[in-house]
Specification:
The complex is a heterodimer of chains A (172) and B (279). Chain A has 172 residues and is mainly α. Chain A is 67% helix and 0% strand. The longest helix of chain A has 25 residues. Chain B folds into 2 domains: 77 residues, no CATH class; 175 residues, Rod shape-determining protein MreC, domain 1 (Thrombin, subunit H). Classes of the chains: A mainly alpha (172), B alpha+beta (279).
Chain lengths: 172, 279
């Protein structure tokens, strides 16, 4: 249990660090900002109490906000993402349910499942984030394009890091 | 009451979510100028539209009073403008020279009213009898003749411009001494006609025309215009010459009033001669 907590804490630190130090400085033509740190919220255990989930998401978003000087925006997007996560998980539940200790990842639930799961949550997060940032609907389609492109970038980064980091994936 | 608490407890997830979102938006609005402005603008829109409606009615009730006070203010402000002041100064140069006595002096003047589109056009200048302007003085601009002073008041004078039925200006060719009378036929403010030039005179299009020495109104050699075309009808002894006027009457602003210092002497002498001739 303690080791698991440490693993999450470590993952949290690494992801925030990568996000703040590297990815926040990456902007392809002003349209694409990958936000890989949301992978932390995605990978929290399935059985985690929902309230803790929300609080964890809030905290994550807030830390990123503090570093990227966007007070509240990431927090709002993360909280919303955490809010819909249980619903997404319920809809995508395997036929025989999740294992008690499982947390979503390519290793545990397979490439296709995780891709769909990550894509859904990423899109939701980015949608909220970019529209809060723009804060008006007059540029709806421009913003939507940004949401889509950034979602793809984030998703790509998340899928790659699924293979690069963490324990080697053994097909059980 | 119990069921209310039960409802709240059952939805604690959603409530927490809403609570956190409230915090987030509070942070967003407090810390990001752009969102702050947007939100307060829209909040203001509601209150503002109510206040505006009230104001609209109030304004309408006070309309008459407001108009009157604005008109008063306008009048006061207008009287403070430099344009409201009449320029009383006059530049008039007289040179003391014993070998050549000066014949002409010039009074600078501003055109305060002007027309070019009537058959008989007048200008109004802002110099009058106070400044020494008299009837029948000539008026020229830097580019050529303008007209003849017609009436003079204390501070103003009216000028019968070249573009007038009764104006006839004695004009000659610059390169020969043949002369004629310049009149305006009333159609184009840039074109006048030169009459009474005998048919044996040789000239070309583009020849310059200037005032003659015969008139006591203008100094000799003031530019009048350029020959732009001519016609000699069969059996006619005089040319009909079209003249492109050198003065652009449509945008005159500063002109000179010509004061011929020897005019009365010349006219007096001529009158004397004519009267003795009669006897």
């Amino acid at each position: 249990m303690i080791t698991e907590l440490l693993v999450f804490l470590f993952r949290f630190l690494i992801l925030i660090l990568v996000q703040v130090v590297v990815l926040n400085n990456v902007q392809f033509s002003g349209f694409i900002n990958p936000f890989v740190y949301i992978m932390f919220i995605m990978m929290l255990p399935v059985r985690m109490p929902k309230t803790f989930l929300l609080l964890a998401a809030f905290l994550t978003g807030l830390v990123v906000d503090v570093f990227s000087n966007t007070m509240g925006m990431h927090a709002a997007a993360c909280v919303f993402m955490a809010y819909v996560r249980p619903t997404v998980l319920r809809i995508m539940a395997p036929r025989d349910g999740y294992e008690t200790e499982s947390s979503p990842s390519v290793k545990e639930l397979g490439f296709t499942w995780f891709l769909i799961y990550a894509a859904t949550l990423t899109f939701i997060h980015h949608f909220i984030l970019f529209y809060i940032e723009v804060f008006r609907f007059s540029e709806f389609f421009t913003t939507f394009l940004r949401v889509l492109l950034s979602s793809v970038a984030t998703l790509l980064t998340i899928m790659i890091s699924q293979y690069l980091f963490g324990k080697p994936i053994n097909e059980k | 009451m119990r069921s209310l608490f039960l409802l709240l407890w059952r939805n604690n997830f959603t409530l927490l979510f809403l609570f956190l979102w409230t915090i987030c938006f509070y942070l967003i609005i407090r810390n990001n100028n752009f969102q702050q402005v947007s939100v307060f603008n829209s909040t203001n829109k509601v209150t503002a539209s109510v206040l505006e409606a009230v104001n609209y009615v109030k304004e309408y009730i006070n309309l008459k009073e407001n108009n009157a006070s604005l008109a008063r203010e306008n009048a006061r402000l207008k009287s403070l403008l430099p344009d409201a002041y009449y320029e009383n100064g006059v530049v008039k140069t007289i040179v003391a020279d014993s070998t050549r006595s000066q014949q002409y002096s010039f009074i600078t003047s501003r055109v305060v009213n002007n027309s070019v589109n009537r058959r008989n056009n007048y200008l109004t200048l802002d110099k009058g009898s106070v400044h020494g302007v008299k009837k029948d003085m000539g008026v020229i601009s830097s580019s050529g003749v303008v007209g003849i002073v017609k009436d003079v008041s204390e501070h103003y004078c009216t000028v019968m411009s070249v573009l007038h039925k009764n104006t006839r200006i004695s004009t000659r060719f610059k390169n020969s001494n043949y002369f004629g009378s310049l009149v305006w036929d009333g159609s184009d403010s840039k074109i006048a006609s030169l009459l009474e030039v005998p048919k044996h005179v040789k000239f070309n299009n583009g020849d310059t025309l200037v005032t003659t020495v015969y008139s006591t109104i203008f100094p000799e050699g003031v530019m009048v215009g350029i020959v732009s075309g001519s016609e000699l009808k069969p059996g006619d002894n005089f040319y009909a010459i079209k003249v492109r006027l050198s003065t652009n009457f449509a945008n005159l602003s500063h002109v000179y009033i010509v004061d011929n210092l020897l005019k009365s002497e010349q006219l007096g002498l001529e009158a004397q001669t004519l009267s003795t001739d009669d006897n």
